[in-house]
Amino acid sequence: MDLKNQFTKKNYKTAVILCGGKGTRLGALSKKIPKTLIKIQGKEILWYIINILKLNNFNHFIFPLGYKGNSIKKFIKKNNFFNSEVEMIETGVNSNIGKRIYKIEKKIKSDNFLLMNGDAIFDFNLKKHFFIHNKKNFASTFVASESIYQYGTIGTYNGKVVDFKRNITHESLNLRNQKNYLAYSYSGILILNKNLLSKFRSKYKDYLNFEKQFFPKVIKNYKSNFIRLLGFFHSIDNIKDIDMVNNRKTFPVKYKKIKLIKKKIKNKFKKK
């Protein structure tokens, strides 16, 4: 049976994975391969992303291609992400994020979809929160995560210095002169109602900074939600990040044992 005929509009679950950037902060490494294909503990970042999303019942993946898009095409062709529909769309090497999303907008098949950056490895249970997002008719659900602050911090208690640490894990930040305001770390993962894209279509494609310009408008005018997901999360921005996550002892066991995650996914779809 043709794969496309196996899905109906009702059971499509779309994830848009942004993967067209040049990854300039990775230096010479990004001249060879796109950032999303950098290997972490033996497997590409994109391999982890697709497989964890499949375990969360996502079955339709859209890749707005840009820099070294042919490498991503070869990767997808080489790997059999069974029971999934994958669409790779050229959106221009120098396009900003808004323009990339604009060019793939009409390909999104689920009423609510996942929009995420293609440079992070995570282990979140998104299935439950996607259901809540649908049930409560949120326009957007932002995913907040723990982050590692790589610089030095001076620890205080009751105004006295008690320690100095590096690479601390934090979830939120207190802002100066704003007592009741907490700023949570955005993971680069967002559940969004696709109708919002059509409402702002004439504007968002030209945004120089999509997140900074689009998100505040959504939050101001529509019902938004955020969830705090505590679990494995690591964004790959530079060489230091690669070394750090490659050496992490807390790397999920199911990722370390590549065969286990493959087996888990295969068993999941055999039961259907």
Brief write-up:
The chain is of the alpha/beta class. The chain has helices at residues 29-32, 45-55, 69-78, 97-104, 126-135, 195-199, 201-204, 210-221, 239-246, 253-256, 258-270, and strands spanning 14-18, 39-40, 43-44, 60-65, 85-90, 112-117, 120-122, 140-145, 147-149, 153-157, 160-165, 168-170, 172-175, 178-184, 186-193, 224-229, 233-235.
Can you walk through the features of this model?
Mean pLDDT is 83; it is low at 1-7. The protein is α/β, with parallel strands linked by helices and 272 residues long. The strands form six sheets. A seven-stranded mixed beta sheet has the order 5-4-1-6-15-8-16, with helices on both faces. It contains eleven helices and 17 strands. It has helices at 29-32, 45-55, 69-78, 97-104, 126-135, 195-199, 201-204, 210-221, 239-246, 253-256, 258-270, and strands spanning 14-18, 39-40, 43-44, 60-65, 85-90, 112-117, 120-122, 140-145, 147-149, 153-157, 160-165, 168-170, 172-175, 178-184, 186-193, 224-229, 233-235. Helix content is 33%, strand content 30%. The chain folds into two domains: 11-143 and 185-270, Spore Coat Polysaccharide Biosynthesis Protein SpsA, Chain A (Alpha-Beta Complex), CATH 3.90.550.10; 147-184, no CATH class.
